């Protein structure tokens, strides 16, 4: 998106050009896009502009077929053009060459020169990692950050502060998305999720503050995603959320995992037009800012500028005293700090990029761990209560704590699994030691019996 009367679209078919199916995977979808949008234009209907995005490693030839589309007079008016030079724009995949697969996709200097010789503006683009002017690279997906750390648990009012491109061949750019991932998105906390529009608003807040020449909205063609082989060897807890008991749970998903952990903007059964409407609102604010020189989002009538109610979600932290065999769940960071000072140990997530709780790849207390639930009651939700029996804590759906001491209501759990709340939370009890705990996704630990399913969380 740019501050002009038309918006741009990028065909993000970025698979390597060297395979035997490259025509089917790359060329034909692009041809169909040009053909169909040319028909729409001929019928007097508006369409966005088109810019292709392709890998051009050494030996690639696919780009020559793209040139034939760019040079076809029929499609002259369909193509995105650089506002400064009026040249047609072509994006190229430019990954960090950190592994052998990435090295195979580094742009060929010779092909870059040939594209420029064809009078195209060539813009590098990839994802993950800081994007700055020295790299002359756009990012099509940019995680929120805390300092120099990518994060996915972004429920507070702190700014997203995603990395962006202050200057490049094509111009300054900020990437925004309804959700984003920093690893396999189906692992806990490896993707932000939509959080009912909260992620999208926070990402747009950066764009509306920076007001770049372009906003790259990542999303339109990411509705499906195939499972991939799990590279995390030796970790029995590295499974897709909600599929912990499924044999296929070892397979992981990257770009899309259900309606919650995906970048789709078009209306869906699960979310209706919520994300599309939010996108429309943010686009209006962006264009108004561009016209007036304003920054930020200050129009109370726009959904883009709304604040999510503080009680929409609640983070539940976990601690265990290994001597007392006592598990404490808490929604208070200060309480957890006090507990740790008195002999408890904070229990961390094994995966993801959390900022509101700790990360430890070999966490010994898994499947106990921190989780995210709802902060208020509603249809299809159950209140989770913290209770005390003797000198130990346990967790119950009963407001009276089953005749024991009530110690507060922690959060509200969803009664049935969903993409938003996919992980089953089980109540566990050890009949020999008397310890009470909970298990996220997986079965109760060895020696424990399952008391009940409490509900579903993230």
Q: Describe the oligomeric state of these chains in a short phrase.
A: single chain
Sheet bearing the most strands, described?
Answer: 5 strands, parallel
Tell me the span between the first and last alpha carbons. 32 Å
- List SSEs in N-to-C order: EHEHEHHEEEEEHEHEEHEEEEEEEE
> Count of DSSP E strands?
19
**Structural shape:** elongated
User: What gyration radius follows from the Cα positions, in whole Å?
Assistant: 25 Å
- Judged by helices, strands and strand pairing, the structural class is alpha/beta
Count of discrete alpha- or pi-helical segments spanning 4 or more residues: 7
- Strand content range: 15-25%
Helix amount: 10-25%
The number of distinct structural domains comes to: 2
Mean pLDDT: 92
Q: Low-confidence stretches at least 5 residues in length (pLDDT < 50)?
A: 9-15
- How do the strands line up in the largest sheet? 1-2-3-4-5
Brief write-up:
This protein is an alpha/beta fold and 458 residues long. The chain has seven helices and 19 strands. It has two domains: 8-305, no CATH class; 313-457, no CATH class.
Task: List descriptors.
single chain, 458 residues, alpha/beta, 2 domains, five-stranded parallel sheet, four-stranded antiparallel sheet, 18% helix
Give the topology, please.
Layout: E1 8-11, H1 22-42, E2 49-54, H2 62-70, E3 88-93, H3 100-103, H4 109-117, E4 120-127, E5 137-141, E6 144-146, E7 149-151, E8 173-176, H5 198-210, E9 214-217, H6 274-292, E10 313-321, E11 326-330, H7 333-341, E12 345-346, E13 371-374, E14 381-389, E15 392-396, E16 405-414, E17 423-429, E18 436-440, E19 449-457
Parallel strand pairs: 1-2, 2-3, 3-4, 4-5, 8-9
Antiparallel strand pairs: 6-7, 10-11, 10-12, 10-13, 14-15, 14-16, 17-18, 17-19
Helix pairs in contact: 1-2, 5-6
């Amino acid at each position: 998106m740019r501050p002009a009367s038309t918006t741009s679209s990028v065909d993000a078919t970025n698979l390597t050009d060297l395979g035997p199916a490259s025509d089917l995977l790359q060329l034909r979808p692009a041809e169909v896009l040009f053909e169909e949008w040319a028909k729409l234009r001929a019928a007097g209907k508006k369409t966005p502009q088109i810019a292709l995005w392709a890998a051009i490693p050494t030996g690639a030839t696919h780009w020559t077929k793209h040139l034939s589309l760019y040079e076809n007079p029929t499609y002259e008016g369909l193509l995105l053009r650089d506002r400064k030079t009026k040249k047609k724009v072509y994006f190229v995949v430019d990954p960090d060459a950190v592994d052998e697969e990435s090295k195979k996709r580094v742009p060929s200097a010779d092909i870059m020169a040939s594209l420029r010789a064809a009078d195209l503006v060539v813009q590098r683009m990839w994802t993950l990692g800081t994007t700055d002017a020295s790299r002359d690279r756009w990012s099509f997906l940019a995680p929120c950050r805390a300092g120099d750390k990518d994060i996915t648990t972004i429920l507070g009012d702190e700014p997203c502060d995603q990395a962006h491109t202050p200057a490049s061949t094509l111009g300054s750019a900020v990437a925004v998305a309804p959700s984003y991932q920093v690893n396999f998105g189906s692992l806990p906390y490896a993707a932000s999720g939509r959080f009912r529009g909260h992620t999208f608003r926070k990402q747009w807040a950066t764009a509306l503050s920076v007001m770049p020449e372009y906003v790259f909205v990542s999303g339109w063609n990411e509705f499906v995603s195939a499972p991939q082989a799990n590279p995390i060897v030796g970790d029995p807890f590295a499974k897709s959320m909600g599929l912990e008991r499924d044999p296929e749970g070892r397979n992981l998903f990257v770009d899309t995992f259900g309606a919650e952990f995906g970048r789709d903007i078009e209306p869906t059964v699960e979310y209706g037009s919520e994300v599309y409407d939010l996108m429309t609102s943010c686009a209006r604010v962006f264009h108004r800012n561009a016209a007036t020189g304003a920054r930020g989002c200050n129009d109370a009538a726009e959904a883009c500028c709304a604040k999510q109610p503080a009680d929409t979600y609640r983070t539940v932290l976990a601690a265990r005293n290994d001597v007392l065999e006592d598990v404490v769940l808490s929604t208070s960071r200060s309480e957890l700090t006090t507990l740790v000072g008195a002999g408890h140990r904070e229990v961390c997530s094994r995966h993801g990029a959390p900022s509101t709780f700790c990360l430890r790849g070999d966490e010994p207390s898994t499947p106990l761990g921190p989780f995210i639930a709802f902060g208020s009651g509603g249809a299809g939700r159950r209140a989770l209560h913290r209770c005390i029996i003797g000198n130990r804590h346990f967790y119950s759906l009963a407001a009276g704590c089953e005749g024991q001491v009530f110690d507060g209501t922690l959060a509200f759990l969803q009664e049935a699994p969903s993409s938003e709340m996919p992980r089953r939370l089980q109540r566990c009890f050890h009949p020999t030691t008397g310890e009470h705990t909970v298990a996220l996704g997986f079965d109760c630990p060895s020696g424990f019996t399952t008391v009940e399913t409490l509900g579903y969380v993230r």
